[in-house]
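Question:
When you can, review this sequence-structure pair and walk me through the tokens.
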Amino acid sequence: MSVEKQEGKKTSVRVHNLYIFLEESGECLFSYKFGSVEVDPLLVTGFLQAINSFAGELMPEKGGYLKSIDRGSFKIVIERGRMVVGALIADEETEEIRAKLKKIVALFERMYERELKNWGCILDVSVFRRFILHVMMEFPGQPINPRFVPKLLSDPVAVVRRLPVPGDVKMKFIRIMDLVNGKKSVEDIANIASMPLNDIVTLMLLGVKEGVIEFPHAKVEEWDVLVRVPGITPVLIKSMYGDVGMSIISRCDGTKSVREIAHLERIPISIVKFVLGLALRYGYVTLTSGRKEGEQNEQCKRH
């Protein structure tokens, strides 16, 4: 999984593993694997706790708190809270990576304050499993636009048993995956299910991670107004639709609706919507605030 950073041009920083452990004992409470690298969380958190203890004895005047460990090919970014410590393994340390880790640690302590204060009476890390949903929102494997249209790749029922989430989340996952038909957008599914959009996005991220769904295209309405993203060549559109596709993309200047573009190009609107749906999915264009549907209909009547 990668996190984009902004330094003139967009590049990506890969993140590999997240660990949250008790500062005093080093006991691992929560871990999450972003990629395919499997590391025993008990070994990692035990090592980090030992390193921090050693640093405390070596440099007591500085509080014995290491903020990062540089291993050359990867960095271990460390953020300490009041009761727990968060450690994130990434290709490199950036301000954004540290800010996200700090937010995660603070949220974990806020959500599970009672459990942490009474940990000696609980000793069951399963109470923290729901936190995976918050981690996925903070570190999405891929940004999900509400207009993206999910498509099933495998049977969600066959996958749900291995999901590392509580039972009620598994039930919601099955319910939402049942609504996926390759036609409804994420936004449509949220409206049908009467659930917050962020909750639907989280479940979709879970589906992507488990190989249950993918997003081959996005949904575009005829009254939508789009603008082309500068500096990106729409290679996919050019290879699939040639000069016609490129001409459609060139019309996306933030002032014309999809319906107006179809009229100017003298192409059926269904084709224009599909081409721009692909362009939106792959980041060649973005939606602007545009005009509302009613306003767009009134202008079309005048034409």
